[in-house]
Write a structure and sequence with these properties.
The protein is α+β, with helices and mostly antiparallel strands and 137 residues long. It is built from 3 helices and 6 strands.
Length: 137
């Protein structure tokens, strides 16, 4: 899936006044929330991360592939130890600091070959996490 297929819609936002202000902490919390929304197939919550009706079937295909490969009903999770994901600074977008995220996924308590890619932006008062891709690495 190339850059042109990335979708951005209604990102999840969190106030910095009552949430963590460090990118690593914010990314961990938001990734956990995104994985919970994927695992529970909560399409309302998924839309807040940019996974809307046009993207959800693609995610479901990847979940099916994971289940077929691992012979299970996949429940995605971050690695249980630190670092659970890679966070790297990218060029600012529209004046906002921007970080790329690559998170190797665990399924059923085991490391898998799948990786979640996302983008996180920081504005003056909020964090935004945007789903980008679920792929085999």
């Amino acid at each position: 899936m190339g850059l042109a297929r990335w979708h951005i819609m209604a990102p999840m936002q969190h106030s910095l006044d009552d949430q963590d202000s460090k990118p690593q902490e914010a990314a961990h919390r938001l990734l956990q929330q995104l994985l919970h929304a994927i695992n529970t197939q909560n399409t309302t919550a998924l839309a807040q991360y940019g996974i809307h009706d046009a993207i959800w079937p693609e995610v479901q295909e990847e979940l099916q592939a994971i289940g077929d490969t691992l012979q299970c009903s996949p429940q995605l999770a971050l690695a249980p130890q630190d670092p659970a994901f890679a966070l790297f600074e990218m060029n600012p977008v529209e004046g906002q600091a921007c970080w790329g995220i690559e998170a190797p996924l665990w399924v059923g308590g085991q490391h898998s070959d799948w990786t979640l890619r996302a983008e996180m932006r920081s504005g003056p008062a909020d964090w935004v996490l945007l789903y980008r891709l679920l792929e085999v690495m």
